[in-house]
Amino acid sequence: MEAPHPQGEAAAGWVTVEEWRGSSASMLSRTAVLTASASSLTSRRFGSRWGRIGSRMLGAFVPEGFPGSVTPDYVPFQTWDTLQGLSTYIRAMLSTQALLGAIGVGEQSATVIGATFQWFLRDLTGMLGGILFTFYQGSNLDSNAKMWRLVADFMNDLGMLMDLLSPLFPSSLIVIMCLGSLSRSFTGVASGATRAALTQHFALANNAADISAKEGSQETLATMTGMGLGMLLAHITRGHALSVWVSFLSLTVFHMYANYKAVQSLSLTTLNSERASILLQYFKECSEVLAPKQVSQQEHILPFWSSWRKLIRIKLPHEHVHLGAKASMLTHTDMLEIAKTRSHYENSNYLLLDKEGSVHIFIHKQATPADVLKSFIHGLVLTNLSQNGKSQHAEARRWMDDKYTTFISKLQVKGYSTERLLSHSIVWRAHWLHGQLDEKLE
């Protein structure tokens, strides 16, 4: 630090101390300069009082070290996520008002025990639904965080719609209430799980806890704002069914759009089956690796897209690869084929079976996450080579020996996490003896 030398104080000595504010060394601002001599102390402050108060308030909503401590896609995602959350809380007031009216709040004929029992059934259905959803899809949420994020909010919209419909069908009130609660239970599980995955993605400075805490502050602010606007809208539209429905449907359309834009803005660096397939295809064509943002633009994130492809019988390359196949599915012909191609998988903790246009990957019981990733890439290579109807195990093996290490290195340079492949849990594993396999099959 250099500062002007106080005149007349050369013999006595002097010292200058500067005050800087900021949680990151790259994001500091000078707030004060103090200079002391033997006989005096001078100070100079920078910035306004309101500016300092504003920066402190901002610190309650953004992670420490922002923006350097988070990924570039944090701001656009949080912006759209806050807007969709705001619309959710406004609609919640309309749907809750309709639901309370349906169970008899405000009517003399309604009983407390009746309303309590209906509410209990609603909550119980939601709890059971959450457990069942976790049982069937829990292991798939991490690998398809974008898609399940959209699914979660769509199911929430569906639950709110059920609440709004409940007064129109009093004879089926309990059924409609339970269906709405069931729908929202999927939302709670899927939204919470995908939020955890996204928080890990945003954390560049091992600050996932800080990001999660600031996310809570942002959501609380959006909740309070949404509740206030929702109460105002509920008061304005009270007694006007058409206005209620127009407001609800308009906000729902905006909510779905904001969710799509939020998910679309994400550039994830983890590898799932589709991202790995896109990256491999480009690498084979250009010997380079796409940046995360470029891959994000090519991903299919709409929930109904996969179902639509199945109806028209169109499969993407990664959908031809079946990871963690069951050994009990093997026929005698399959076993003979494995014996014939076994030499191409020496010292590998996986085996590939090319069958009917698909590649089935059998994972060894001692395989590591790195082995699983390698087996999937190997399966993609074999799938691409086998499209002409002929088995290409030898050529796929040569590609893996020559190019796989380079491919992984270039992924790491681009910032991708190559420790593992995000996929469904591999429940089925296998064990084989290389030296005795041919003898057993003869």
TrEMBL record:
Compartments it resides in: Membrane
Keywords linked to the UniProt accession: Membrane, Transmembrane, Transmembrane helix
Any one of the GO CC terms: membrane
Domain Root UVB sensitive protein C-terminal: 289-432
Domain called Protein root UVB sensitive/RUS: residue spans: 51-284
Keyword set includes Transferase: no
Predominant location: membrane
Recorded superkingdom: Eukaryota
Protein family: Belongs to the RUS1 family.
Protein name according to UniProt: Protein root UVB sensitive 3
Biological source species: Panicum virgatum (Blackwell switchgrass)
